[in-house]
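Example 3.2
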Amino acid sequence: MKPEHIKVPVLPPNAHLDSDCRGVASVLARVGDKWSVFIIRLLGGGPRRFNELKRMVGGISQRMLTLTLRGLERDGIVTRTIHPVIPPRVEYDLTPMGLTLLDAIGQLVAWADSHLPEIGAAQAAYDGKHQAE
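Structure, written as tokens:
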């Protein structure tokens, strides 16, 4: 049951184009990916090097970190800067558009954190109910 203070807009039929939905779904898939969320939050503290990110994001493989950073760079959320020193130093940072994601991701993480006990209880109840079937 929805709390009364949450208003869900009613959209007219055909209020959007399928292509719009696909575009939004693609963006949400990128920024909602668990690795992207971690990386965006970490880059919110300033530029980081690849190995620094790898150490900070526990459990991510080198390949997955590379793919995630490339995708975020392609979407204009992250920049990759190569400093002309020997050996070359590469840093990743959020773009101005990427910085605008920090509040939204922070709210999502805070929501998840504050609801972990409820979610765990709901999962246990669901599993118990469906285990008997």
